[in-house]
Inverse folding.
C-alpha cells in the first residue's frame, strides 16, 4: 500500500486566499508528490462574516455561516485557483471539493461564459473538469448528484459524509438509492477514492 494519500487545507490563512503566490509552493509539492489537496470549508473572512452572516445565529452557533458561508467561501477559493493560473503552472495538480463541488457544477456554464467574456479568462469549465474531484459530503440530493455526474463524470465523485452533521448510514443510503448503475455506485463508494488516494 502506498503511503502517498494527500493533504487537507482549511480555507483562508490569516485572511489570505490560497491563490497568493507565497502559497504556490504547496501546489508545487502536491504535484511533485502526485497527491491531491482537499480544500475544506472554513470560516469566511471576518469582514464578510460580520457583514453577511452575523445577524443570524442560534445561541453562539453561526448557523447561516455554516449553511451558506462555508459553501460560498470554498467555491470562491476554488474559482480563484483557476483564474490565478495555478493550474497553468502545475498542470497535474488535483483538488478535492466537498459538498458535491460547493455549487460550482451547477453554475459551471455560467462561470465559464462570464469569466471568458467578461474576465478574459477562457477555459474555466475545462480546467475545473480536469483538476477537480468532488465528494458527496453533506449533500445528499439526487438532482445535485445527477448534475455533478453530467458535468464531471462519475469517476470524479467520491463518497463522504460530513460528520457530525450527517452520518455514515445516511451517506451510504443516499448513494445506494441513486438511480445509477451498481458499477457507478461502487466507483463513488470506494473505487474512485481507491484510485485517487492510492488506498489499495
Amino acid at each position: 500500500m502506498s503511503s502517498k494519500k494527500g493533504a487537507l487545507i482549511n480555507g483562508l490563512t490569516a485572511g489570505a486566499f490560497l491563490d497568493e503566490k507565497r502559497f504556490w509552493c504547496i501546489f508545487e509539492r502536491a504535484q511533485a508528490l502526485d497527491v491531491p489537496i482537499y480544500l475544506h470549508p472554513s470560516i469566511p473572512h471576518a469582514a464578510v462574516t460580520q457583514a453577511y452572516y452575523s445577524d443570524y445565529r442560534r445561541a453562539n452557533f453561526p448557523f447561516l455561516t455554516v449553511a451558506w458561508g462555508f459553501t460560498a467561501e470554498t467555491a470562491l477559493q476554488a474559482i480563484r485557483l483557476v483564474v490565478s493560473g495555478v493550474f497553468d503552472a502545475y498542470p497535474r495538480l488535483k483538488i478535492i471539493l466537498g459538498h458535491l463541488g460547493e455549487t460550482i457544477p451547477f453554475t459551471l456554464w455560467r462561470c465559464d461564459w462570464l469569466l471568458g467574456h467578461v474576465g478574459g479568462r477562457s477555459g474555466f469549465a475545462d480546467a475545473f473538469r480536469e483538476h477537480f474531484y468532488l465528494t458527496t459530503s453533506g449533500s445528499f440530493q439526487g438532482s445535485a448528484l445527477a448534475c455533478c455526474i453530467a458535468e464531471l463524470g462519475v469517476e470524479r465523485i467520491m463518497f463522504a459524509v460530513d460528520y457530525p452533521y450527517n452520518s455514515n448510514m445516511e451517506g451510504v443510503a443516499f448513494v445506494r438509492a441513486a438511480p445509477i448503475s451498481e458499477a457507478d455506485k461502487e466507483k463513488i463508494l470506494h473505487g474512485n477514492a481507491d484510485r485517487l488516494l492510492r488506498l489499495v
